[in-house]
Amino acid sequence: MNKLNQTKSIWVSLLLALTLILGSCSKDFLNTRPVGRVLEVNYYQTEEQAFEALVSIYDVLQWNDQYGFTMFRFLQNVASDDTYAGGSDASDQPSWVAYDNFTLTPNLGPQRGFWRKSYKGIYRANLFLEKIDGIEDASEAFRTRTKGEAKFLRAKFYFDLVRLFGNVPLIDHTLGASEYYTVEQVGPDQIYPLIISDLEDAIAVLPSSVSSNQLGRVTKGAAQALLARALLFENDENNMSQVASLCESVIQSGEYSLLTSFADLWTADGEWSSESVFEITYSENSASDWGSFGWGGGEGNVGVQFIGMRDYNGPTYATGWGFCPVSTELEAAMDGDPRYGNTIIDADALPGAEYTPGYQNTGFWMRKYAPIAANVAPDGDPALNWGNNIREIRYADVLLMAAEAIVRSGGSEGTARTYLNQVRDRVGLAALTSSGNQLLEDIYTERRLELATEGHRFFDLIRTGKASEVLGDQGFVASTHTYLPIPQQEIDAAPDVLTQNPGY
At what angle do helices 395-408 and 240-252 cross, to 10 degrees? Predict the structure, then answer.
């Protein structure tokens, strides 16, 4: 990395996005190979160019390699009690270790990658929204739908930022070079209205479903579910009825259903199944190598390589780098649960298998996104070309959000139990008959088991006020670790407008 990139803030990287680097973002809809650089000043002339620019916003969702390895979902597992950091030793990926034991500093942790990625996506969305109406050959239907997609994506990036950092700069339009350093932080109370407005606009115009060659594009159901998730995390009891209504709109749409087999969710054929509300798509066919690594140029999911067993030799799986060993807490919680074998790999139970135990080894590993030997990419570096999609929003999650919101809003407990028991019945668990506070606790327990290692647990603990109790032994202190530190590089670049989060 050159000196300029070392010293300039994310605002500079946003300005660099004036040069569009276009790449694919899925196996189908986003399967557009990089076409080089086109200056913004002579771009956005045709509907085709606008579509490519839209793809460039989606593309940011994939990025796992901003200022180190910053896989959003896997790092949230590390922050929670689902997994440990792992790796070869305590010096392997120190930012992961710092997030695991909450020894984060403004210079140590995954925060710079998260910050840069989100604002890069926001910039691209803002630019798209400003340019799309000026494209004369674009149809009105195209404009309407793509603006809805851009607003969904902008809302997604801002939702990530507000959960991770709390007070952040709010930028809803493109700015001149000198202006980026003058944008002050605002609180979540000013960020959420934009998230809500963007998602409501998206809900109004997005289609209920997409054709098979457009898988990867967001739908009305995805926008409804993301808005429900955002309002649930905002944690205003007055909004619980709206959360329930949004989730029930998804449920009643008829577009989604639970797969009969929980195991099928985590196969290649389980991608974009009836249970998938939204996925972040990856491709095993981009033939990436380390020459394209570090700028978001690859289309593979390097996170899969991270969580595989180190130096593995045995059946079914491919070797990985030994990160995210499953915690003893999660393994104990899932003991006897029918989902255990499709959530956790018990390495000692694999016949004829060998691997090198690394840092924080427990003998238990993540199964849902594990590297499968049969799925090794045919070209490029295998470590960088895993095609495993991230199941960002599953129908089971929507059912559990609906159940929680109904109980918290004083709605029908019978309906809440129905949604909860649908998730349990799919894996052969008996129906629950609890009510009141016990019903709510049962819903939380079901979220812990159904969604284990999918990156939701940390945020669930934060919003339910249980983080200190559960994560205290890891070093979590609510007054500090509810949020990440603002990256020091950003503070240094804009010291007059950015304030560090408390405790850092």
Answer: 140
Cα(362)–Cα(238) distance, rounded to whole angstroms?
42
Coil, helix or strand at residue 185: strand
Helices 140-165 and 220-234, packing angle to 10 deg:
20
Residues counted in the chain? 504
Candidates 356, 359, 345, 337; CA nearest to 315 is: 345
pLDDT of 138 > 80? The answer is yes
Three-state DSSP state, 217: strand
- Residue 199 per-residue DSSP state: H
**How far, in Å, are 106, 195, 256 from residue 187 at the CA level?**
19, 13, 35
Answer for the pair 94, 108: CB distance below 8 angstroms, yes or no.
yes
Q: Classify burial at 415, counting beta carbons within 10 Å of its beta carbon; exposed 0-12, middle 13-18, buried 19 or more.
A: middle
Percent of the chain surpassing pLDDT 90: 86
What Å distances lie between residue 224 and 17, 270, 447, CA to CA?
A: 29, 22, 19
Round to whole Å and give the CA distance between 178 and 188. 25
- 356-to-138, 238, 292, 319 alpha-carbon distances in Å: 56, 51, 29, 10
**pLDDT 10s digits, 242-281:** 999 999 999 999 999 999 999 999 999 999 999 999 999 9
Angle at 131 between CA 151 and CA 167, to 5 degrees: 40
Name 19's bridge partners: 39
Segment (H or E) for 442: helix 436-450
Determine the residue type at 287: A
C-alpha span between 479 and 244 (Å, rounded): 30
Contacts of 130 (CB under 8 A, 6+ apart): 173, 174
Please say if the pLDDT value at position 144 is more than 80. yes
Determine the Cα angle at 419 with ends 417 and 424, to 5°: 85
Q: What mean pLDDT comes out for the span 31-59?
A: 77
Contact, 498 vs 16, CB < 8 A?
A: no
Per CATH, domain 3-70+111-219 is 1.25.40.890: yes
CB atoms within 10 A of CB 172: 13
Domain residue spans in the chain?
A: 3-70+111-219
Confidence of residue 288 (pLDDT cuts 50, 70, 90): confident
Q: And the tokens for 379?
A: 């070209």
Reported as half-sphere exposure (CB side, CA atoms, 13 A), residue 437 has a value of 1
Q: What is the number of other CB atoms lying within 10 angstroms of the CB of residue 486?
A: 23
